[in-house]
């Protein structure tokens, strides 16, 4: 399970830290966060902060047979799933990133997609997606542009700070993605 909560000093020291991608060739869905938070940077696990709703939404949508703890993230590839980030460096808040960092991250992400060729890229954070990919009018769901043969979806940010998306509505939009890429 997830290690003991990081101390304030450990969280402060995590600023700028990076965590490895959970990725493999031919995944069904590669989830892409905006960037790691300090909690993730301190623990080394994606979406690790208590209150982040990524792991509950993933399970509620039917992607995993049980709710995974962030420390179990390496099990994702066995389900055809992976995780990466638009920007690798950990920050306290995503709004600390510059538009240029997000655009540069989209270029790096595109190279990962070309290398690993997942069936779908699911960016969790519509505002970051809009900025990174230059699509200011993008909406939640399937996007008209793909990256090579990889379909692109935009999902809401599962952070607890994104309060107008409830756990139930997050699970619904995650489930619509699962239905598309697990029914074929």
From TrEMBL:
What is the top EC class of this enzyme, as a single word?
hydrolase
Entry's InterPro entries?
MUG/TDG, Uracil-DNA_glycosylase-like, Uracil-DNA_glycosylase-like_sf
Q: What is its EC number?
A: 3.2.2.28
**TM spans, by residue?**
none
One function term, GO molecular function aspect: uracil DNA N-glycosylase activity
- Describe the location of the Uracil-DNA glycosylase-like domain by residue ranges: 20-178
Keywords, sorted A to Z? DNA damage, DNA repair, Glycosidase, Hydrolase
Which SUPFAM superfamilies does the protein's record reference?
Uracil-DNA glycosylase-like
Q: Does the keyword Flavoprotein apply?
A: no
BP GO annotations: base-excision repair, AP site formation
Which Gene3D superfamilies does the record associate with it?
Uracil-DNA glycosylase-like domain
Under what name is this protein listed? G/U mismatch-specific DNA glycosylase
Q: Which organism is it from?
A: Amycolatopsis alkalitolerans
Tell me the classification of the organism that encodes this protein: Bacteria, Bacillati, Actinomycetota, Actinomycetes, Pseudonocardiales
